[in-house]
Amino acid sequence: MWSALAVAFFSSRGWLLYSGDAEAHLDIARRMVDSRTPGYDQVGTAWLPLEHWLTVPFAGVDAWWRSGIAGAIPSAICFVVAGCFLFAAARRIFQSAAAAWTATALVALNPNLLYLQSTAMTEAVFYACLAGLLYFTARFRESQGWGPVIGAGLAACAGTLTRYEGWLLLPFAAVYFLWAARRRRVAVAAVFCLVAGLGPLFWLAHNWWLGGDPLAFYRGPYSARAIQGEAPYPGRDDWAQAVLFLRTAVELCCGTGLVLAAMGGLAAALFKRAFWPLVLLALPGVFYLWSMHAGAVPIFVPSLWFGSYYNTRYGLAVLPFLALTAAGLVAATPPGRVRVAIAVLAIAAGSAHWLAHRQPEDWIVWQESNVNDQARREAVREAAEYLGAHYVRGTGIFTSFGMVTAIYRELGIPLRDTFTGDNGLAWDAAAARPELVLREPWAVTIEGDAAEAAILRAGCYRLEKSILVKGAREIRIYRRAGENRDSA
Length: 488
Fold this sequence. Notes:
The protein is mainly alpha-helical and 488 residues long. It has 2 domains: 2-16 and 68-370, no CATH class; 374-487, no CATH class. It has 25 helices and 5 strands. Helix 22 links the parallel strand 1 and strand 2 (418-419). The longest helix has 26 residues, at 69-94. The radius of gyration is 24 Å and the shape is globular. The two termini are 46 Å apart.
């Protein structure tokens, strides 16, 4: 119910697709079932596929695709699943229902995560995978059964197909099984590795099959490293700055109260011997710290970087760790009314920041999507107004996949009407010899992209509309010469 209320809140305000990444995730899922060449290969090679696969059944419904609710449904379901796993895991770890409620509530009440679980983003899906891995490893220590080993392997495998920090979890989890198993240690660890390792092995094979390079996701033209390039940023090759920016993002995403509560509960959680859970939940934060230092993933927060927002949501990677650590305070108190009272106080302290900052403008993840993508949304709106008044459905649009795809979603134009670089050999032929191949009456391009280069070489398209919004790339709408204007 809580998850559904959050989805309804953000949907009623039209915010489900404020983020350009959420738009792209949704449209990737859509093109798998709606394209000139629909199918498996439309998932691409840069972003991991699980979130897209989960969204496909919903993105095929036109109304849900156009509203963005198609991306919210799987994210919200995963958010609920994650909460159930976290509660069950914390109860096993601390042997306390009050502590479990505390950890779960501290995560569930975070408005930044509630926003992301209402969109076509991957955070809620990965949260479910991480919480599932936490639960099954905690259960294995007690039961020593094969079921938890398989469950942990499946959760870890799903995590590796959702976000790349999931790959970092595998060797640590394998070592955990070697340490926690009281018999057949090597066999237990091997079974876990066999199941969990299917994710990375599949993705390497997928990239080789589609891109000719098993590491295309890492070093290809659409990889995070290629997008960042050699541009300097705070934290690159500087551990102190990397720590500063990540710590600031964590505080802004999770709230000062929760950070303080977690600091107070750390000793209690260690006293309760929650060593593995703390290590596991800390690893996603370690991944981003390492990525910042390695030069692949910058984080900008307005208080430290000229008012800029970029990747602020990565601060949420530490949220489950902070919540479980704060729950240690509850577990350390005697059972009974005192423990319940401490749980209430811990939840209140950890959520107090959001009681004092109740407006979306105070939620940094929402604010980043609002600020950074405002110009893109305006450019898309203007393009949709023009194209909607002139385009005849079914006639065809030569275009690129990306920012401009939102135009077709807003207008309800099927993606099979569009001819893009994701259509394989047909696109290659059009790009190489546009004067012979291109027959689409319309073209929608981004200034300087491959689609525009082909249009200009064809020599038979005229510029009808140029849309230039400050802060956004210029959208250009072309029409084939000789097309009957009255037919639109």
